[in-house]
């Protein structure tokens, strides 16, 4: 199930979006539903916090409020649901540049310039989000997305991640992958909360992927990964690691 949210300050345009989306998902018989259509960003955030489903958000960029705009709203939505789909609706396509400034990944932009074009783009976005979500669910693909300093989004399958380590550069993390190395802005405490149960904070400076552990040397407090890289294991974390590995029958 995908929950759809609409935040548009113009009532006529909000109703148009709602009508087009409702009609299309009914016609295509998609497992989707509009849960919230409003001009209030706070209502969108509250609804997102109380949903366990994947979200597809249609956000007007200019919300005619001094407190926020579509980009700031998208940033807050990403904090609640990092893997959601966000579509910006705007009269000014040139504003798409600001997705990099605000470091928000957008599924697409819909320009309010032509009714027929808008209709087709709405349908495309719905199908695109539905297909991406269905593919991920069917193949059980978990993805980590890193936002680089220039705003570029880089996605890495969880299966390809060896570990995360704090960088020598303040507030930056290094992702050690099987075939890549990425450094991106983030804090390990924040990252730890976002990752699933297959990742483990083995040391104050390190998070390892349990699925890619090759061996654990409890005597020397070292975790050896599938690529033979080695990471420190905090003494106070040994018992917790044993329990977690036993629970998941990994080692």
TrEMBL record:
<keyword id="KW-0238">DNA-binding</keyword>
<feature type="domain" description="HTH LytTR-type">
    <location>
        <begin position="150"/>
        <end position="247"/>
    </location>
</feature>
<dbReference type="InterPro" id="IPR011006">
    <property type="entry name" value="CheY-like_superfamily"/>
</dbReference>
<comment type="function">
    <text>Required for high-level post-exponential phase expression of a series of secreted proteins.</text>
</comment>
<keyword id="KW-0902">Two-component regulatory system</keyword>
<dbReference type="InterPro" id="IPR046947">
    <property type="entry name" value="LytR-like"/>
</dbReference>
<dbReference type="InterPro" id="IPR001789">
    <property type="entry name" value="Sig_transdc_resp-reg_receiver"/>
</dbReference>
<keyword id="KW-0010">Activator</keyword>
<keyword id="KW-0597">Phosphoprotein</keyword>
<feature type="domain" description="Response regulatory">
    <location>
        <begin position="3"/>
        <end position="127"/>
    </location>
</feature>
<comment type="function">
    <text>May play the central regulatory role in sporulation. It may be an element of the effector pathway responsible for the activation of sporulation genes in response to nutritional stress. Spo0A may act in concert with spo0H (a sigma factor) to control the expression of some genes that are critical to the sporulation process.</text>
</comment>
<keyword id="KW-0963">Cytoplasm</keyword>
<dbReference type="Pfam" id="PF04397">
    <property type="entry name" value="LytTR"/>
</dbReference>
<dbReference type="Pfam" id="PF00072">
    <property type="entry name" value="Response_reg"/>
</dbReference>
<dbReference type="InterPro" id="IPR007492">
    <property type="entry name" value="LytTR_DNA-bd_dom"/>
</dbReference>
<dbReference type="GO" id="GO:0003677">
    <property type="term" value="F:DNA binding"/>
</dbReference>
<feature type="modified residue" description="4-aspartylphosphate">
    <location>
        <position position="60"/>
    </location>
</feature>
<protein>
    <recommendedName>
        <fullName>Stage 0 sporulation protein A homolog</fullName>
    </recommendedName>
</protein>
<dbReference type="GO" id="GO:0000156">
    <property type="term" value="F:phosphorelay response regulator activity"/>
</dbReference>
């Amino acid at each position: 199930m995908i929950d759809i949210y609409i935040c548009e300050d113009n009532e006529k345009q909000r109703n148009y979006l709602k009508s087009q989306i409702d009609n299309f998902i009914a016609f295509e018989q998609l497992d989707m539903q509009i849960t919230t259509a409003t001009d209030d960003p706070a209502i969108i955030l509250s609804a997102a916090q109380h949903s366990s489903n994947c979200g597809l958000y249609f956000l007007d960029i200019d919300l005619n409020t001094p407190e926020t705009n579509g980009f700031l709203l998208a940033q807050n939505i990403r904090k609640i649901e990092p893997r959601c789909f966000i579509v910006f609706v705007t009269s000014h396509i040139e504003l798409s540049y600001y997705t990099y400034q605000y470091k928000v990944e957008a599924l697409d932009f819909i320009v309010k310039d032509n009714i027929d074009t808008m209709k087709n783009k709405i349908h495309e976005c719905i199908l695109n989000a539905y297909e991406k979500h269905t593919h991920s669910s069917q193949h059980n693909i978990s993805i980590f997305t890193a936002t680089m300093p220039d705003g570029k989004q880089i996605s890495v399958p969880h299966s390809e991640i060896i570990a995360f380590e704090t960088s020598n550069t303040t507030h930056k993390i290094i992702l050690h992958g099987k075939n890549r190395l990425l450094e991106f802005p983030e804090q390990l405490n924040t990252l730890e909360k976002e990752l699933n149960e297959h990742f483990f904070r083995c040391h104050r400076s390190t998070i390892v992927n349990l699925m890619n552990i090759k061996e654990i040397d409890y005597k020397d407090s070292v975790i050896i990964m599938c690529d033979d890289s080695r990471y420190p294991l905090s003494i106070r974390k040994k018992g917790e690691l044993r329990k977690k590995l036993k629970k998941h029958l990994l080692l």
